[in-house]
Structures are given as structure tokens and as C-alpha cells.
Amino acid sequence: MRKQNERLDEFAGLIAHDLRNPLAVALGWTTDLQQRYDAESAEQLDVIARSLNRMEQIIDDTLTLARKGEAVGDMEPIGLLELCRNCWQGIDTVEATLNSELEDGIKIKGDSSRLKHVFENLFRNAIQHGHDSVTITIGRSGETGFYVEDDGPGIHEDARDEVFEAGHSSERGGTGFGLAIVKRIAEAHGWEVSLTEGSARGARFEFNNVEFADTQ
Predict the structure, then answer these.
(1) At CA 57, angle to CA 94 and CA 78, rounded to 5?
(2) What does the domain layout of the chain look like in residue ranges?
């Protein structure tokens, strides 16, 4: 099994490398042409650029799912709020707001590089499916848990299990890997993840069996 996983990881890396090189060239030329041609041509090139960017996102999500969804590296104390803020700064948040109900100094034990994918995907998911000014809130849930919820339209109860399946997406142009990545990385940490209705009727992702670090 270990050898098989190593081969899979190597194969994924080779595929990503072979795809990313020509993709980077195509994106570079498209960007250059957008700046040189008239408005009508630039608009058509913008369609091509969006398609190429989507391909790049699919490659990134597939690699994350293949390489980082099953195993975690060094477990260390991580400032939960600091991690969330760093992830928030790394994505396009439009007019969305990040709200915290966490106490200062709360730390969890985990692999920060893996958990970065968890929060970035949760934030993107809320922004893509919510309104422009969606508010995302993070907070504690019991002794061994925390939650991430939004005030968007929420997810129907019948579809809450399906959203964690790889390839499932209700958003046109989405890869359908984001929440599958969230679930796999959470489970690799030994956490339980569930989806319920939030206090503002939006989506609420709850993570339980989380090991909180000693903040004394």
C-alpha cells in the first residue's frame, strides 16, 4: 500500500508538471493578447483566460486531494484565529466579512500546511454560494470542537452528505473538490466533521474531537 501511494504521488506530480508548463504558457500569451487587442477581442480572450484558470484550479485541487487529504505532517500548536486570518488574506473575499467568537490565544494541534486548505476552501465555498456581503463566523463548539458558519442561503438537509463527495458541485464552473478536501484533511487529523444549519440559517460546519493545545 505504501509503495502504491508513493507511485500515485509520483504520478500526480508528473501529470501536474506536464500540465502546468503548457498551461502557464497559454495563460501568459492570453494575458499579453488581452492588453494588445480591441475590447471585443479582449472580451473573447477573457473567456479563454477564465477557462485556463479553472484548469489550473482543477490541477491544484486534484493534487491536494491526492497528496494532502490522507496524511498529515508534524502536529504542532496553531493559533486558530491567526490561521483563519492568514487564510482569509490569501483569497478573494469580495465584500465578505470574517467574524470571530473565539477567545484570544485559542490553539489547536494540527498540521498548519494541511489546515490552510481546510479554511481556504470553507471560506471560498461560503463566498461562492452566499451573497456578496456574506459574514463568516468562527467559534468554539463544546470542549473539543469549533465551527465555521455563514449567513448565506445554507444547504438543504437532503444534500448535506453529498457536498463532501469529490466532484459534487452546485456551482457552475466549480471543481467539486473543495469540501471533499475539507473532510479528508479533517479526518486525517482524527476530527469529525458535520454540516448543519447555522444560527442565521446559513451553512454551519462543525469540527469535533479536536485536540486543543495547552495555552497556559
Answers:
(1) 70
(2) 2-68, 76-208
| CATH T-level assignment (fold) for domain 76-208 | Heat Shock Protein 90 (3.30.565)
Q: What angle do CA 181, 182, 183 make, to 5 degrees?
A: 90
The one-character DSSP state at 74 is -
Picking from 15, 47, 45, 50, the residue whose alpha carbon sits closest to that of residue 32 is 45
Ranges of residues in the chain whose predicted pLDDT is under 70:
1-2, 4-17, 61-62, 64-71, 166-176, 214-216
Cell of residue 60, nine digits: 491544484
Helix (H) or strand (E) holding 193: strand 192-197
CA–CA distance from 140 to each of 14, 147, 185 (Å)?
41, 6, 19
The pLDDT of residue 119 is 95
Write the pLDDT tens digit of every residue in 85-119. 999 988 888 899 999 999 888 999 999 888 988 99
pTM assigned to the model? 0.70
